[in-house]
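Translate sequence into structure tokens.
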Amino acid sequence: MSTLFVVATPIGNLEDVSARALRVLGEVGAIAAEDTRVTARLLARHGIRKPLISYRAPVERRGLPRVLSALDAGDVALVSDAGTPTLSDPGDALVSAAWAAGHKVVPIPGPSAIAAALSIAGLGGPGFTFIGYLPRKPGEMRRLLASLADDPKPAVAFESPYRIKRSLAVVDEVLPDRPLALARELTKVHEQVLRGTAAEVASALGDNVRGEITLVIGGKTKG
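Result follows.
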């Protein structure tokens, strides 16, 4: 049987791709990509030419048969636009289907916005909770944040730049004194890290926010 390689790619700075990831991308028969245009730029930078199969989140199930067909013919790499596939990115259905079909699934670890943000947040605890993208509905977000009130572990979440100010307002409402770190455009030219309470971070962030955002919310401290 063939192998599905789950390959982590840079979250911004293209120099962060590993030598092993490049070798695997150059050896597989095809690459399943969240956005073929993004992946094509990475491959072109390193002189790699491979068939690309579109595998996007909104129609993940629709793209599944084509990727599985390619996997039946040979090894396939799964990549997302940035970071590690399946973590708030497409791929979980493909990984499950590959295992079910008897294929081997191998991780090629590398850049992760989750690990990068945690490493610089200074809000360590006994493990952490990964939320994924914050709920869009304020009521759902309030309930989620309330569930973290007594948790000593920091929580990591992704958020859109278009919703971050509103989300910080909800965090300020539910967890007003909780320290947090906002990491924007990690590893890119305009990387920005802000620390403080939700209100302080929102004030420092300003308007016209752009770029990918990772939020680390500190856990409950003793005392």
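Note: The chain has two domains: 3-108, 113-217.
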